[in-house]
Amino acid sequence: MSSRRCWARYARWPTVSEHDRARRHWLRRGAALGAGAGLGIADVPAGARDLPDSWRTPGQGFGNYGQPVDGGPIRWMAVEPGTTGTGVSWTPLHELDGTIIPNGLHFERHHAGIPAVRTEEWRLAVEGLVDTPLSLELAALRRLPRHSRQAFIECAGNSNALWRPDPVQAPVGWLHGLVSCSEWTGVTLATLFDLVGVGRGARWLIADGLDASGMTISLPLAALPDGAMVALFQNGEPLRAAQGHPARLVLPGLEGVAQVKWLGRLTLSDRPVLSRFDTVAYTDLQPDGSSHRFTRTMGVKSVITDPAVGRAVIGGPSGITEVSGLAWSGTGHIVRVELTHDGGRHWSDAVLEGTPRDTAFTRFRWPWEHGRPDITADRVRPVRPVLLASRATDSTGRVQPGRATLIREQGHGAYYHYNAVTAVEIGADGRVTHVHLEG
User: Suppose 173 and one of 47, 92, 187, 188 were both cysteines; which one would form an S-S bond, judging by CB atoms 3.0 to 4.6 Å apart?
Assistant: First the structure.
């Protein structure tokens, strides 16, 4: 029986229990009685006095900005010694679901801390090889036509710990969490270029940030992705300071360093600047000793977010456990994610949720048929050890490479753009560990 058919066998709408029916009855009765009392609290019959206090007692107040339950998931941070704001924070992918990352959990990479940009003094200059240079304040920029789209942003250094020969034992978010997906809203670069008029000889776009790192990035005009924008909003709210307020570049599918935060100037030029962020940093050392510059486009990639290292897997009594994860690509949308439970000898298709979008997260789910579990006195566990891995394919035909293939192409001196198939092993005791799938 196929995984999908087997999964369907166990997909059943839950039935309404007698407990639920009773609760609904007392809620309706309480609302009716409370309408007369003005409090929304009803007398509780003697037979229902064992119900939770939350059904009888008004809850706490609410505030101006919603907060997560019990503090919610948090990011893991690494700050460079001797600094107050240079470093990274990883999105806890293993504690989230869906495809949109909350603003407060979006990964961050700062090269010189978060600058104090005064909104009332801020201007975006668009100049260089243009017909009509512009300097736009935030209010003027917000009056231009806006565009919204989902897009992931991924640091080129994401997952780089897996270049090491020994797999790192950390939750998936702490290994792969320098990537997040949001809905971004702003003014497209095409709109700005129409306003200023692109001059003859313009071949490059130079973007300057306002932080103290001297952030300057050179981008070939011909390689700018569709939907490239100056973003003003993230997931419906104005950009937060850590995400580049008042404005940042969002370049769907390109590496994170190119998506300049605290954007201050866009210059059209006939040549690249060759800043340190164009050359020394974020370049890929090749096996022959040469370096690839301007490797901006991110590869096709997938990671399993559940099961995750740090949490034991307890097999369900049905003999099926859901495996879930995320897939994305810098050059298109995800068309297929395959899963294996035997280290790559056999692969089967996962279910892709929703309609996959270009350069955005796609959530996949796959029913792992581990068979009827052993049942001990205190818990249910898998019957046998398994090795789970995922492999993604995008709409351009690119397939996520195996680890051996990636190392053969990039060599052992690589640091950026790791996108090989990753795997976890689940032992007979339910313990989850990262392993290298070398095929």
Answer: 92
User: Is it the case that residue 363 has pLDDT exceeding 80?
Assistant: yes
Residue 231 inside a domain? The answer is yes
Q: Decide if 26 is inside a domain.
A: no
- pLDDT (0 to 100) of residue 146: 97
Tell me the pLDDT of the chain averaged across its residues: 86
**Which pLDDT score is estimated for 245?**
97
The domain boundary, picked from 253, 272, 292, lies at 292
pLDDT digits (tens, 9 = 90+) for 239-271: 999 999 999 999 999 999 999 999 999 999 999
Domain that residue 190 falls in? 76-292
Domain count, the chain: 2
Phi, psi of 29 (to 5 degrees): -65, -40
**Of the candidates 151, 162, 160, which has an alpha carbon nearest to the alpha carbon of residue 184?**
151
Residues 277 and 322 reside in one and the same domain: no
Last residue of a domain, one of 292, 324, 343: 292
Residue 33 lies in a domain: no
Q: Give the C-alpha separation, 180 to 105, whole Å.
A: 8
What percent of the chain has pLDDT above 70? 83
Residues 417/298, Cβ–Cβ less than 8 Å: yes
307 and 231, same structural domain? Answer: no
* pLDDT tens readout for residues 15-46: 445 445 545 554 454 444 444 444 444 555 55
d(CA 343, CA 326): 19
Q: Which residues pair with residue 251 across a beta bridge?
A: none
- Please state, in angstroms and rounded to a whole number, the distance separating the CA atoms of residues 141 and 238: 13
In a domain, 346, yes or no: yes
Measured CA distances, 161 to 26, 157, 195, 303, 434 (Å): 55, 9, 44, 14, 12
20 CB-contact burial (10 Å; exposed 0-12 / middle 13-18 / buried 19+): exposed
**C-beta atoms surrounding 104 within 10 Å:** 13
